[in-house]
Amino acid sequence: MLATNQSLLFDDLGSRRVQADFSGGHLSTDGGVLLLRQIDRGLGLSRALAGCFTDLRNPLLIDHTVPELVAQRVLALALGYEDLNDHDTLRLDPLLAVGAGKLDPLGEDRWQDPGVALAGASTLNRMELGNNKTDRYHKISHDPQKIEQTLLAMAVRCLPKDAVEVILDLDGMGHLVHGLQEGRHFSAYYDGYCYQPLYVVCGGVVLWAQLRTGHQDAEEDVVAALKKIIPAIRERLPRARIVVRGDSAFCREALMAACEGEREVYFVLGLAKNPVLVSRIQKQMAWAQARRCLTGTNTREFTEFEYQTRASWSRARRVVAKAEATAEGPNPRFVVTSLPRAGFGEGELGAQWMYEETYCGRGNMENVLKQQTLDLEADRMSTHYLASNQLRLWLATFAYMLMERLRALTLPGTELAKATAGTIRVRLLKVAVAVKVSVRRVYLQMSSAFPARELFALCLQRLKAAAWETS
């Protein structure tokens, strides 16, 4: 075994010898976990999430409580460690132990594995599989309904209290799986076996993350989800109007009728084109094509009309149409909405505004979900069971909530105000720290060469001044 003070010699730098050893003491590369810890404590996130678990272990024989396990897992996800195997080395990180709430961040007082503060991959894996296995080794289980309610309650608290309009974006993604996972199904669209989770996003906040089997239709379970989401929003924002927005996969009679049956709930949904719809915009398409011949650029014409299907719709509804002429040919698009053209006293909601500003605004939701999957690996569905994969999806969603709150509360007006979770992680959270633990304090010495140290200090200042809501 290599001694900590055994020298490693590299090529000289001019007249200087380049020498290294492993005697630097306790170091971490994730100094930004302190900011995430501050947010976690302010929101009460990991504490509330831990309350959704049942722990049947003997408290006298354990080293890691459920709140510590949950905090360790969520913080590691936010820091970019999506695999459980990562925790076999992360368990040695004293700074992550501080973030997880370990009173002994060096693990010196543990009755087994002294000097290792955090849980390893096997312990965390037993926690995630607790709902599917009932043997003597799996004594931690979770209540899916409670986690669902906790996510919704905490996400709704992130919405501004003075909002007059709340837009709920719907999306059904395809998360590919690479094994024999329970509930997988082949999708020709995604060209592989997958799950198709349902997401509901409001601005930059994820309100709903429901894992569904791969064979379910995009709009399935949407009405049931909205029946839980809308009352939660009404409790916080009783006078705000709610707009449900989605692509043509969600354009179903059940969803539209459900919105029409609620007070101050509207919808803006993509509508798949058909010969009848295309025939209604022939005049506008002719004008667009004529203008393109004169200008040589893509041109658009907008119109609207009342439309009702032969059998599937219960009533006629307002349809907004875009007639676009491109180099590749005609590009008609349609949107059905219950928003009135007269608007709400702030000007008319004309056809062009409805399409370009209201419907196309759903692109922001796509960016949120890309951060979920690309930066936080929310699509890492690698356990066999549907229940444990759902738990992993929720854990990634809570980790994203920490990152979103970090951006919303501390980064307005800075160069990272609109940065993705991955960029914030690299630019702000990845900072080298030397950790020194004594009886009276945990002293953290951050890198003097850290380029964002002023921004880091500003973030802490803003977090201390934040008015955290505990209700």
Q: Which structural class fits the helix and strand makeup?
A: alpha+beta
Number of strands: 19
* Alpha carbon gyration radius: 26 Å
Helix content: 25-40%
> How would you characterize the largest beta sheet?
9 strands, mixed
> Count of helical segments?
16
Strand proportion: 15-25%
- Alpha carbon gap, first and last residue: 53 Å
Shape: elongated
Task: Please tell me the overall pLDDT.
Answer: 91
Low-confidence spans: pLDDT under 50, at least 5 residues?
none
Give a written overview of the molecule.
This protein is of the alpha+beta class and 471 residues long. Helix content is 37%, strand content 21%. The strands form 5 sheets. Strands 6, 10, 11, 12, 13, 14, 15, 16 and 17 form a 9-stranded mixed β-sheet that branches. A 3-stranded antiparallel β-sheet has the order 3-18-19. Strands 7-9-8 form a 3-stranded antiparallel β-sheet, with no helix packed on it. The model has no long low-confidence stretch (mean pLDDT 91).
Record the SSE blueprint:
Blueprint: E1 8-13, E2 16-20, E3 26-28, H1 33-43, H2 45-50, E4 53-55, H3 66-78, H4 87-90, H5 94-99, H6 121-128, E5 140-142, H7 144-157, E6 165-172, E7 175-176, E8 185-187, E9 192-195, E10 198-202, E11 205-210, H8 222-236, E12 241-246, H9 253-260, E13 265-271, H10 275-279, H11 282-295, E14 299-307, E15 317-326, E16 329-330, E17 333-337, H12 351-359, H13 363-375, H14 386-410, H15 421-429, E18 433-437, E19 442-446, H16 453-465
Parallel strand pairs: 6-12, 12-13
Antiparallel strand pairs: 1-2, 3-18, 4-5, 6-10, 7-9, 8-9, 10-11, 13-17, 14-15, 15-16, 15-17, 18-19
